[in-house]
Amino acid sequence: MDTILKTEHLCKYYGSGDNQVRAVKDANIAIQRGEFTAIVGKSGSGKSTLLHLLGGLDFPTSGKVWMKDKDMFALKEDELAVFRRRKIGFIFQAFNLVSSINVWENIVLPIGLDGKETDENFVRDIIKTLGIEGKVQNLPHTLSGGQQQRVAIARALASKPDVILADEPTGNLDSKTSDEVVGLLKMSAQKYGQTLVMITHDQDIAQIADRILVIEDGEVVEQG
Amino acid sequence: MKHIIHHLALSNVRQNKSRSVLMILSIFLTTLLLSAIAGVGCGTVRNNRVNAGNLYGNYVASLSKVTQEQYEMLTLRSEFTHVGRKAYVAEADSGKAGINIGLSFMDITAAENTNFDHMLKAGALPIAENEIAASAEFFEKFGLVNAVPGDYVSIPLRRDSQSKFEEKEFVVSGVIQSLQDVIAQKSFQGMVSQEFYESLYPEERRFYEVTLRLNDTIMEDERDYEEIVREAAVLCGVEEENISPNEQYLRWVYEPGTETIMGCILIGLLVIVVSVAVIYNIFQVGMVQKIQEYGKIKALGATRKQMRKLILQEGMLLAVVGVPLGLLAGCGVATVMCRKLIVGSQAMVGVELENVSAISLPLLLVVAIAAFLTVRLALSHPKRVAAKTSPVEAMRYQETASRGRSVRKGRETVSVFGMMLSNLSANRRRTVSTICTMGLSCVLFVSVSNLAGNIDDKFEARRYVEYGQFSMSLDWRLDDKAYPEKNLCQIQRDNPLGAEFQEKLKAIPGVTEVKTRKCFEAENLSLNSLDLDGAYVNVCVLDREGFERYGKGSALGNVDYDEVAAVDGILFGASYFMADYGYQIGQQIKLKDMTGSGAVCQGKLMGSFGAAPGVWVITEETFDKLGITEDVTETVWADCRQKDKGSVEEAIEDLMSGMEYVETDSYESAVKQARYGTKMMQGVVYALLGLLGVIGFLNMANTIITGAVTRKRELGVLQAVGMTNRQLNWMMQLEGIFFSAGTAVISLIIGSPLGYALFCYARELHFYGLNEYHIPLLEIGVMILSIVLLQATLSFLLSRNLRKESLVERISYQG
Ligand SMILES: Nc1ncnc2c1ncn2[C@@H]1O[C@H](COP(=O)(O)OP(=O)(O)O)[C@@H](O)[C@H]1O
Ligand SMILES: [Mg+2]
To answer: Which of A182, B187, B485, B805 is deepest in the core (most CB within 10 A)?
Structure first.
């Protein structure tokens, strides 16, 4: 199996002296292509920080993140942005969508920013898979939370990234919708051959992952 | 609760720091403009009132051709005080072309009345028979340089044009301050003593020009001063037509300067309109993000009244900072401008003027109240909105104005440009209102620059020197009974600009062309009782070219040269007054020549020019038929090549030496003068409009800043999914450019036709220097450039400021 995402002695500290918060401490993890990894941990344990580092949204205090054979933080800021929109798809807990454009436009946004042609059939297929065909012209504020997250998933899939990073995508949803959304996420990642890393504090949801990483006070441990 | 409202208002002000700063700035600028306008207006009125005497003379009326006996009777009348007399004594031989030097006698009261006493730089007014007081330039003409009291000077003089010049030795008793423009000065006055005057003229030949004031008790309760003067003076035997009231003085002393005040109020209202729009908009744009918060406050139990109070207090807190600062700055500006005004008019009248303050506390109070009311007015709508929204509604309040809209057509692909458009259209109301307020100040600018930018100095100069490089024209009066020799018909009986002169002019080397125009004095036999020009008028003879020149613009009726010539028609000279003076197209007009022939020019009134160089106008054909034998040339123009200008000017000066009643002017100096006037006017107008523009821009800045702040998280998400910094910058710039372009388009679409209409209207009224219309490209260019530059700087700073926070911080930002 080939490793797609790898960290080397990855550390992220906030502040200094007595007030220093070690959000991520010496994380050495490797994620394989096609794998569905869940990251679990208590609130404030450093999950989001780790995910941001994996996705190149934040800069580490020390250590490295490798995507295939690319050292992410060796890239310049704008190169990193381009790298992000081509290789990584993000899904956040809430407020994921741009309010002034409709569902379709939100989905094809990363492709548009890249100046690429939209593969329309592919996007329509994703939309169908996620069951939001009827909503493509809707503005985000007219959708329910679950529908909004489906759009966010579609956007993360649409640019055919290698990795999808999701930070508590079900945090704002009720449990029935949560199961649906995670199921869809897993199913479509499989369908389009994408690697999925998802944060959750819900052990039940974590169970459907291929692999679970537990993070406690910034230290990452493999579970079971 | 009261305390809490205040506290909440204060914290709101602090929280929306950029909005607060912008509002304070707009309030500051508004107050500054208002107080500067009020201050300048107040200074002008005060200057005119306090210095009315200094500016226009300290007398109520002047009476001419007053005999010794009448003078004595006048001094005895109880209505009058300060009866002063002045008399023409003799003409002095200047020995130089076009320069008139006269000697007069003036008693001390007349000197006081006309401020002559203030003009003494050294020494005293003449008392002894051989004493004289005059300006340094006057003495220089007779070879006495740097005159001081006690110096001797010999002056050739004569009593009238029948006598020969005789030298007389004088002792300098005083030196009079020179007027500002001595180089251009063409007539000089010297003052001699009563003794000298009386030695030259026996009592029956003494005629005075008397200036007088009214008794203070009359001034207090009566109003029709002119009538009182007239009655009393007529009783003393003064001819009614020789009485002329000092209208300017009366107006400023007894009237509050209504015109100035109205003008200031009008401009002030304009400022208030723009400011209300801007402050309203700034507040409104920030409101939307505050509504949710207002909803929470309401849910906690605040009443409608308290909500209204909260908003008002927010605004008032800002006004409390902005208004005093604006008042202070406005007072500074007004004081400086007033000082300039006083120094300027001082140079003109040559009398030291009392300094007046431009600052009036009651007026400042009014301005402050106006500024506060402006803020209040701007807040009245937001106040109502905040009070009206129910808590539930408010908490669910969506930032986007797309509330109610649930779908959007959208596009297949998304670009940075499309993102910008989608955002602006989602916030359509805010976008439109911002562009409109910004547009309002720009519309004002564009329309006014259609006026100010179209001032044509050369055209304005051509009003004074119509053709060529130099003009020489008769300096005449109509029906002057005191000095009949100065009347047009008298001058023309031995016309200094006659054929002989014209021949000499043509002979000057370098002169390429000489052109003339005729104009003669006539008695209007068809006088209408409404006609304020009186019975004696000047009739101008225009050629075809003249008809074309003056026929442009606001002519009435038929002003076609051939058609008028064919029927020997007569035209009126000023269309604006024709109806007021009671003349109608088609009626018969009879004008009797006064020059000597007595010929009567009779014809149909065909129409009127906008502003012709005579009260009445006839064609050359008609003139030829009248059979007037005198040379009634009134103006002569000479043209020359550019390089010969200097030598020709000298030659003309030589030619004119010793000539009475002729004035010369050069095109070059007329252009210079016009250019100076234009610059002054444009400076003031553009400064005012520029400030209004800045106020408008503050509003645009607020919209752009608020837009960025409220979308902080959204912009963070955009960057997370791959928008580069460069794309973000570009998007912000595009937004700004859209606002600028929208403003520019609005200001051009509305401002240009408005400006063109304004231009046409002002040209009808013969507003300064308006001739041909051209689009004021330079002004519009500068305006657009400054908007674009301001906006680009703002967008740049803003996107840089956004990036100061890390991406993760922005994504986690809880809007
Ligand atoms: N910008 C920041 N400054 C200081 N401390 C931070 C910052 N962001 C996160 N932290 C701290 O880092 C720790 C990990 O935070 P986070 O990764 O958000 O936790 P989780 O997502 O697991 O709830 C927390 O203690 C948090 O307080
Ligand atoms: Mg988290």
So the answer is: A182
